[in-house]
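Structure first, sequence second, as always.
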């Protein structure tokens, strides 16, 4: 049997709120910070000027800080700079 790739399915806001209410506030904040930092990293494309390189490095550092918190809670919550599934 060949496994088909998983298709992301949106979940209702109330279900997301219920899931979020079961998690510590620090983890929710780290998850939000990681999503924002990963989005920021994807914004930059080569070739980068000095200012863009510094901004990208700052976003990568923010992602690493958020991933450290998320990884301590649950390693499956880690995000890569390319985003989920990349």
């Amino acid at each position: 049997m060949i496994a088909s790739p998983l298709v992301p399915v949106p979940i209702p806001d109330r279900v997301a709120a219920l899931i979020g209410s079961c998690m510590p506030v620090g983890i929710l904040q780290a998850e939000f910070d990681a999503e924002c930092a990963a989005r920021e990293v994807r914004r930059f494309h080569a070739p980068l000027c000095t200012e863009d390189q510094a901004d990208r490095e700052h976003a990568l550092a923010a992602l690493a800080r958020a991933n450290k918190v998320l990884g301590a809670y649950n390693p499956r919550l880690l995000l890569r700079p390319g985003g989920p599934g990349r």
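Margin note: The helical segments are 13-21, 25-42, 50-73.
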